[in-house]
Amino acid sequence: MLICSCHERRRAAEQLATKRADQLAIVTGLLLARDPTVTPESVGDLMAQVAPAPGARAALTRHLVAHPEALTAGGSRMPKVVAEFIYAAIAAGITGLTSPGCALCGRPRTLVHTHGDSERICTTCYSRLLTATCSSCGRDGHRIRSRDVDGQPVCPRCHDRARPLEVCAGCQELRGLKRSTRDGLGYCRSCIARRAPTEPCSICGRDRRVNARTATGGAVCTGCYDKTRTGTVACDECGQVVPLAARADGRIGTGTGKNLCAGCYRHPERECGICGRTRRVALRATTVSPDICATCYQAPIVDCSVCGQHALGRRATRNGRPWCFGCQATDRIDRLLAGPDGTIPIGVKEVRDVLVATHRPRSILNNWDRIESLTLLARLARQHDELSHELLDAEGDRFSVGYLRALLVATGVLPDRDEQATRLRRFAAAVIDEIADPRHQQTLGRYVRWHVIARAKPDRHGRLNATISDRCRQEIRTAQRFLDHLTRRGRTVDDCTQADLDTWLSTRRATRIRFPRWLLDHGHLPGLALPDAVPAAGPRTQLDQDEHWALVRRMLHDEDSASIEDRAAACLVLLYAQPLSKIVSLTTDDLTLDDDGTYLRLGAEPLLLPPPLDALVTSLPIAKPFGAASTLADQRWLFPGKWAGHHQNPTSMMGRLNKLGITTRTSRNSAMLHLAATVPPAVFASLIGISTGAATKWAGYAGSNWTTYAANRTNATANPPQNQ
Ligand SMILES: [Zn+2]
Ligand SMILES: [Zn+2]
Ligand SMILES: [Zn+2]
Ligand SMILES: [Zn+2]
Ligand SMILES: [Zn+2]
Ligand SMILES: [Zn+2]
Ligand SMILES: [Zn+2]
Ligand SMILES: [Zn+2]
Question: Given 15, 71, 176, 595, which is the most exposed site by the fewest CB atoms within 10 A?
Answer without folding.
Answer: 595
